[in-house]
TrEMBL record:
Biological process, per Gene Ontology: protein folding
PANTHER family on file: TETRATRICOPEPTIDE REPEAT PROTEIN 4
InterPro entries, A to Z: Csn1/TTC4_wheel (IPR044059), TPR-like_helical_dom_sf (IPR011990), TPR_rpt (IPR019734)
Protein's name according to its UniProt entry: Tetratricopeptide repeat domain 4
GO molecular function list: Hsp70 protein binding; Hsp90 protein binding
GO-annotated cellular components: cytosol; nucleus
Cns1/TTC4 wheel domain boundaries: 274-363
Parts of the chain that traverse the membrane: none
Keywords of the record: Repeat, TPR repeat
Amino acid sequence: MASLSQQGDDSDDGMDDFMDKFKKEKYSNAFSEKNWEEEFDKVPMFMKTAPDEIDPMKHPELAAIQSIIHDDDRPLEEQAESLKDEGNDYFKEKNYKKAIVSYTAGLKKNCSDSNVNAILLTNRAAAHFHLGNMRSALNDSVAAKKFKPDHLKALIRGASCCMELKKYTDALLWCEEGLKLQPTDKKLLELRATADKHKRAAERDARKEKVKEKKELSEREALLVAIKVSKIIVTQDASDSDDDNRGPSRDMAGLDLDGLCSVEATGATVFLDDQGVMHWPVLFLYPEHQQTDFISAFSESSSFLDHLTLMFGEELPPWDTNRKYSPQNLQLFFEDHEKESLYQVNPETPLIKILQHKRCFVKAGSLTTKYWNLFVSFPFHCQQHNML
């Protein structure tokens, strides 16, 4: 049997052999100048960002730490705190979605610590805020305040959410509640001043809009009366009209003035001027050349010749290569859609006289008829009908 001294000598000899081998062979997993940053990033303490999915085989240390964080055997308060810290780490990395997941998991622990729950909700509100989920952020701020009414960060977050949602009155209430706790808080003072400014501007704009709507309503009512008094037939559909039933009350029933304006780029609409004179959008069609002219405000008292003299005066349109379209040579017609016939218009006739003709129907509430149409043609290109 070997003596104790011999056993010690054997142990020492073994260590000497190990040390000699260690000096000769480098450690295979040692850090090098090239990969030391990469290796450091694998150590939980030095990690800049956590991996999306933690593989226990690749990151055993991180998996161990995570298991501690999520250890269900610990008190609920500790578990909630750990999840809060996890969420804060994600928040610092601006990974707000993962931060929300961690904060939510902490809230699901239903711990009895009101302060922890208030912080979890306030932090989740901040994450929602940065993602643009303002209503969710506001809801979390309200919930946080219920857990801890004097939680200043929750009050600031609630005021900020209301500002983003343009709820300026509510924002002021949040600010006032916070300033009772901390009268000199700079953020709350700034939010209150901004909220008050926007609230006053919104109220001013609302008053202006109300006045504008009232004025537009008054103008529409006056226009309806003018159309009724003038006995102009306005229908939803030209087929609704007939010679025996021309009563203005029928024509005014369900009248939609929006149908009398252009929904195209011009935006032209029939209107009354300050003297009570109606002005109509009128489209001139030139079928022979497939051309048009548009007058956005044709006064009811003006004659067609007034406009034709301007349109075909000294400077003729480029498409009239034969120079045939002169005011003296032109014929004008309006179309009766129901009878599919044309009625000739005397160019010296005022517009109101044509609009009052029993076969002239102005459509309203129809997106297919934007203007009242006139057909203009050189004499021998169009069959003559009743002269007006």
